[in-house]
Amino acid sequence: MDKGIYCLVLKNPACTVRVGALGLLPFAAGWHCYVGSALGPGGLVRLERHLHLAAHRDRRPKWHVDYLLADPLFSVTYAVSAPTQDRLECRLAAALARGGPGMEKFGCSDCECPSHLLHRSRDPQYEIIGAFAGLGLSPRIKTIITPNAKGIL
User: What CA–CA distance (Å, rounded) separates 42 from 3?
Assistant: First the structure.
């Protein structure tokens, strides 16, 4: 089972969503990039769990990003992942943070990063691919075909 890091890319209208202990959070319209780690026993199966939740919305949220995946206003457009045994998710989040703001304390309760969720007004695919490559990783892109979220741009 491949272990690695990933970036989920979601699209949404301007909205407010309750995210666990973080409470009600405002989200600007556009694209949100969530950086995650899949270095545990299941490896990149964690990414598949996220994609299943986004497609079926049939499980209770476990992580911060799950609240967005379960919300009908958010739609996953694609995922970028790369196999690695190294803890590079914080470096990936930091590289993407140079390009724009993050949602404070989102997805980073187990590290010192300011955020693992970054906002963009345009599709960040090339930026994400460049950030993976900058870490010496070979990114894989998985396009997600799901019903459009309500109110998407």
Answer: 8
Contacts of 136 (CB under 8 A, 6+ apart): none
Q: What is the pLDDT of residues 64-119, one digit of tens each?
A: 999 999 999 999 999 999 999 999 999 999 999 998 878 998 998 888 999 999 99
pLDDT for the residue 147: 56
% the chain with pLDDT above 70 = 93
Other CB atoms within 10 A of residue 45 CB:
13
Measured CA to CA, the distance from residue 49 to residue 38 in angstroms comes to 11
Residue for token pair 């949220």 = 61
Q: What is the DSSP letter of 151?
A: T
Q: At what angle do helices 89-97 and 125-134 cross, to 10 degrees?
A: 130
Cα–Cα distance for residue pair 109/37, rounded to 1 Å: 13
What are the backbone dihedrals phi and psi of residue 20, each rounded to the nearest 5 degrees, phi first? 45, -135
Q: Check the CA dihedral 55-75-24-38 and report its sign.
A: positive
CA gap 140, 29 in Å, rounded: 26
